[in-house]
Design brief:
Layout (H helix, E strand, L loop, with lengths): L3 E4 L2 E4 L2 E2 H8 L3 E5 H14 L5 E6 L6 H10 L2 E4 L2 H9 L7 E3 L6 H10 L3 E4 L2 H14 L3 E8 L21 E2 H13 L3 E7 L10 H19 L6 E3 L16 H12 L5 E4 L3 H4 L3 E13 L2 E6 L8 H5 L5 E3 L9 E6 L8 E8 L6 E4 L20 E6 L2 E6 L4 H5 L13
Parallel strand pairs: 4-20, 5-6, 5-13, 6-7, 7-8, 8-9, 9-10, 9-11, 11-12, 12-13, 15-17
Antiparallel strand pairs: 1-2, 2-3, 4-14, 14-15, 14-19, 16-19, 17-18, 20-21
Bound molecules: pyridoxal-5'-phosphate.
The site of pyridoxal-5'-phosphate (PLP) has 16 residues, from helix 10.
């Protein structure tokens, strides 16, 4: 189902040659496949068709407006974590009634705006947040829909930086405190209890943690029912992994079967917040080799893309596949580190790769559709890359390359100041 294919030695994304995209839009460049995103969304929805459900795309995975627009047109809901993401979803045509608002640090202004547009619910992560939300809703004379994000204390067995369901994490309320908070919310006039939420981590490659988390959430739901509190939905978050190297994450049908089996005859609607699974494999990052360099027998390809463009290798030690965009028959592959121009030793896209490449060649860094551009920065005063969306034989520039003037537009020189001696 990958949108990548090699034809006559040249890598294509859907029907478009990546060399053509690099020529047209320059490098470094993010390229996304509309077809791959659409196929994943439809597969997710189809896997749960036997039960009422809503798929709320986790915007932070890739928040490009065109990606959001595509998903909105397919009928997706959205999981947001900031006021900025809310405005993006609205601008892209997302229905506010399909938005869930997650995140541990919601500000008063963010709550006001979300109540004003009418989001589906707030995934509340602490008692303090619940009290703040109640006060804001009361002041505006509205009722805030509430779901508690509970922390089921299960080990997602993923990288510690992307594990969120253990009790030492900052996320959610402990499942043992949840019942008291639900009782409080149920009695508060400005709050309406709608559901329960949990998200235990990202890039999970086995089903057990999901099923364990659901078991604990269901025990809570049953306790709440005994207390007379009914929920409309159970939100199981995101976290389903994708293939970067040789992982074998469960398929969507196995995931759905495991969850639906455990849910049994319960009638609450299911909600999901997938990010990476929908967009990760639908993106590549294109970069061009600037220099081939050798140091004490170690070979480097110095490329024009860097950690400011794609942070995952530096931040988590993540692996991304790196493929030459066109074959170089006859040139022997050598073991190389693919590094960027940023002044940090952690600035690499891949290490110890067997590649045959020369200066000027293009490389495709694969599975770069999630947590790629969204984590990009201007570190080293580098302009952020352009983004292109491919659909069949067409390509659309969906974010133009930044210019240095763009970067400087926000800054100001000091007025003349007396010089001290
Ligand atoms: C990041 C996040 C997601 C999406 O996680 P993926 O691993 O990309 O599916 C979903 N829900 C919440 C609350 C998140 O923080």
């Amino acid at each position: 189902m990958t949108p990548l294919s090699r034809r006559n030695g040249h890598l294509h994304f859907e029907e478009v040659a990546l060399t053509a995209l690099a020529e047209r839009h320059g490098t470094p460049l993010y390229v996304y496949s509309a077809g791959a995103i659409e196929a994943r969304y439809r597969a997710f929805a189809a896997a749960f068709r036997s039960h009422p459900h809503r798929v709320c795309y986790a915007v932070k995975a890739n928040s490009n407006l065109a990606v959001l627009q595509l998903l909105a047109q397919l009928g997706a809901g959205f999981d947001i974590v900031s006021g900025g993401e809310l405005e993006r979803v609205l601008l892209a045509g997302g229905d506010p009634a399909g938005i869930v608002f997650s995140g541990v640090g919601k500000t008063v202004a963010e709550m006001e705006r979300a109540l004003e547009v009418g989001v589906a619910c707030f995934n509340v992560e602490s008692k303090a947040e619940l009290l703040r939300l109640e006060a804001v809703a009361k002041r505006l004379g509205v009722v805030a829909p509430v779901s508690l994000r509970v922390n089921p204390d299960v080990d997602a067995a993923t990288h510690p930086y992307i594990s969120t369901g253990l009790k030492e994490n900052k996320f959610g309320v402990s499942i043992s405190d949840a019942a008291a908070l639900y009782r409080y919310a149920a009695d508060a006039q400005a709050l309406a209890v709608t559901g329960v939420d949990c998200h235990i981590g990202s890039q999970l490659t086995t089903l057990e943690p999901f099923v364990d988390a659901l078991d604990r959430v269901l025990a809570l739901v049953e306790a709440l029912n005994r207390d007379g509190i009914e929920l409309a939905h159970i939100d199981l978050g995101g976290g389903l992994g994708v293939r970067y190297q040789d992982e074998t994450p469960p398929g969507i049908d196995a995931y759905a079967t495991a969850i639906l089996e455990r849910l049994g005859h319960r009638r609450e609607a299911l909600m999901f917040e997938p990010g990476r699974w929908l967009v990760g494999e639908a993106g590549v990052f294109l970069t061009r080799v600037e220099y081939v360099k050798e140091n004490e027998g170690r070979h480097f390809l110095v490329v024009d893309g860097a950690m400011n463009d794609l942070l995952r290798p530096a931040l988590y030690g993540s692996f991304h596949g790196i493929e030459p965009v066109f074959d170089r028959p006859g040139t022997p592959a050598v073991e190389v580190d693919v590094v960027g121009p940023v002044c940090e030793s952690s600035d690499f896209l891949g290490k110890n790769r067997m590649l045959a490449a020369a200066a000027g060649d293009l490389l495709a860094v694969t599975t770069a559709g999630a947590y790629g551009f969204g984590m990009a920065s201007n570190y080293n005063s580098r302009n952020r890359a352009a983004e292109v969306l491919v659909r069949g034989e067409q390509d659309f520039l969906v974010r133009r390359r930044e210019t240095t003037a763009d970067q400087l537009a926000f800054e100001q020189l000091l007025p003349p100041l007396p010089v001290s001696d």
